[in-house]
Design brief:
The protein is mostly helical and 266 residues long. The protein has a domain at 1-107: Alpha Horseshoe (Serine Threonine Protein Phosphatase 5, Tetratricopeptide repeat), CATH 1.25.40. It has helices at 10-16, 22-37, 41-53, 57-69, 73-84, 93-105, 109-121, 129-141, 145-157, 165-177, 181-193, 201-213, 217-229, 237-249, 253-264. The protein starts with 9 loop residues before the first helix and ends with a helix.
Length: 266
């Protein structure tokens, strides 16, 4: 299964990148290459991205490695993504894990989150949920909203970790307020279940609405159930059915079941 990284999903980048006109692209790459050769690590990283966009991942590897070895954490993350996405051959998750670890140590907050995902899922090595949580929180504290989302989601799903729900809630709130729809929908569950405070279905629905408006399918699916059952506000069967129909078309079984329930409700 292709792994689409939170840090940088390289395959869509290659497939969907807008190509510059050939003469302009060549001139731009030449300028960046000159700066990279002169020791500008950020330009080496940018050159690597440009090379990936233009179908030359092997050339990108050398530039990413130069910048990563020089201390630029984002380049370590890009290098890791090359290996994880299998753009240099078969996916090499153990190698990718090592480069994400290097990037995390070099202040690449998204690298910390990606490394946490690998520890959580046992990609490229052992499973260690506590280590994953440490990395999610580190990424979150450095400003990576997906790290905040993963911290809160894992705390919700793994009650045996006994994470302080107030702490998880605060991490999710930061992620939600700073652009992560996933964090919003996880925070909605905390409000609905009363984790870290009293249950607040109204706030739960507002957060699901926000996640849905930001393009989260899970947010829209959750909102649909709340609308059809009157959770956190009035029942809205028209909009609820519309959202459920869209979810059912995506093969979400629970949405199809809910549509059947509504069809046979008195």
């Amino acid at each position: 299964m292709q792994r689409c990284l939170l840090f940088w999903c390289l395959v869509p980048l290659v497939a969907c990148a807008t190509q510059l006109p050939e003469d302009k692209a060549a001139a731009e790459v030449l300028e960046i290459r000159t700066d990279c050769d002169a020791g500008n690590l950020e330009q080496c990283d940018e050159l690597g991205v440009s090379l990936v966009k233009n179908g030359a991942p092997a050339g990108a590897q050398a530039r990413f490695k130069k910048a990563c070895d020089g201390g630029l954490g984002s380049a370590c993350g890009h290098l890791a993504a090359l290996y994880a996405e299998g753009l240099l051959g078969p996916p090499a998750l153990k190698v990718a894990r090592g480069h994400f670890s290097d990037g995390c140590d070099k202040s690449c907050e998204s690298c910390c989150t990606e490394l946490g995902v690998m520890w959580l899922n046992g990609e490229g090595g052992d499973v260690d949920v506590q280590q994953a949580m440490t990395l999610f929180e580190k990424g979150c504290e450095q400003g990576d909203v997906e790290g905040c989302s993963h911290f809160g989601m894992t705390a919700y799903q793994r009650s045996e970790l006994q994470v302080d729900p107030n702490r998880a809630r605060e991490r999710l709130r930061y992620g939600c307020e700073n652009g992560s729809p996933d964090a919003c929908i996880h925070l909605s569950r905390f409000y609905l279940d009363g984790l870290g405070g009293d249950p607040n279905p109204t706030e739960a629905r507002a957060l699901a609405e926000k996640a849905c408006s930001q393009g989260s399918q899970i947010g829209c699916d959750t909102l649909a159930f709340q609308l059809t059952r009157g959770i956190g506000g009035e029942i809205d069967l028209v909009r609820g059915r519309t959202l459920l129909s869209e979810a059912c078309e995506r093969q979400l079984g629970s949405a199809c079941d809910e549509l059947k329930r509504l069809a046979y409700s008195p």
